[in-house]
Write a structure and sequence with these properties.
Length: 303
């Protein structure tokens, strides 16, 4: 199955899981999903679901201090995550960093909070404490065990496994609480859902996301990282700076096209009809097809 079709199915499953997130912890649909572990570089590993939608990619820092996770996928994946971590390093799980509030990145929080301290931007905690609604439907408030217990506003450093890990807020890109994580010694970054590798991104307009701000944030992130950094995306395959630059080119092309056409008085339907350059046609193979992507850009324009 090609990657785009896989992601398409994934996002449809995400839709139903978000809708059914209220206390439904059945493992239905997750039994056949396995986790693939990739050694990225240095202390850092990536865990991704294979055979179905497990949630967003997990970053793992494993070393002499123990284990730190970036995100923890959908809740039924917790035992498989535990097993995958054990295979990398039998040390203690100490910290979980949540890149944003979505259930496909924080679903394991209830499970893992018994052993680890959860850290996030303040808006992530706030959104998990209250009912949310977005394009995918309603997400009821999460139980207290899922809430991050350490929050920050701009940035926080975690000194762990010989790295001065940077966890930095990038406002109003995918949501209003996204944090990007950089491991300087291993020279690896985890971009959460600021980066959908190879497909159009989902921008959560109802919880503070904006396509233009997302584009600006990606530029800032590219400028802040070394040329040889490796990049874990929220969804899709492991990437690097050239990969991120291609994504940025797609973002700038699409956002400026929609902005210019809207300035000429074109309606959303007319812009969708005109479409994006052929170069990006394959990026619409996911659940966020070209029309949805153009719509999220259009609704990101200043009112
Ligand atoms: Zn996601
Ligand atoms: Zn997300």
């Amino acid at each position: 199955m090609n990657r785009l079709i896989k992601l398409s199915i994934s996002l449809v499953v995400l839709l139903f899981n978000n809708l059914a997130f209220a206390g439904d912890s059945s493992n239905q649909g997750f039994d056949n999903i396995t986790l693939k572990t990739t050694h990225v570089r240095g202390n850092i590993y990536m865990l991704e679901g294979v055979g179905g939608f497990a949630g967003g990619n997990i970053g793992v820092s494993a070393g002499t201090d123990g284990v730190l996770l970036v995100d923890d996928q959908m809740s039924p994946m917790s035992e498989k995550i535990n097993a995958a971590i054990q295979d990398i390093n039998a040390g203690q799980l100490r910290f979980i960093l949540n890149t944003h509030w979505h259930g496909d990145h924080t679903g394991g929080n209830e499970h893992f909070s018994k052993q680890a301290t959860i850290i996030s931007h303040a808006n992530v905690r706030h959104r998990m404490m209250t009912d949310q609604e977005n394009f995918f439907g309603k997400s009821p408030a999460r139980p207290k065990e899922a809430w991050p217990i350490i929050t920050f506003n701009d940035a926080v450093n975690i000194h762990f496994n010989d790295e001065d890990i940077q966890f930095i807020h990038y406002a109003n890109g995918h949501t209003d609480g996204d944090g990007v994580i950089y491991f300087p010694k291993s020279n690896v970054a985890h971009l959460g859902d600021h980066f959908f590798n190879g497909v159009f991104p989902f921008v959560d307009l109802t919880t503070g996301g904006n396509a233009f701000k997302l584009t600006e944030n990606i530029k800032t992130i590219i400028d802040s990282l070394p040329e040889d950094a490796l990049i874990i995306p929220g969804h899709g395959e492991l990437s690097d700076i050239p990969g991120l630059k291609t994504y940025y080119k797609m973002l700038t092309t699409s956002t400026s096209l929609v902005k210019n056409m809207a300035a000429k008085g074109k309606t959303l339907e007319e812009i969708q009809q005109a479409g994006l350059p052929e170069e990006w046609a394959s990026w619409g193979g996911g659940f966020i097809n070209e029309a949805n992507w153009i719509q999220s850009i259009y609704h990101s324009l200043p009112k």
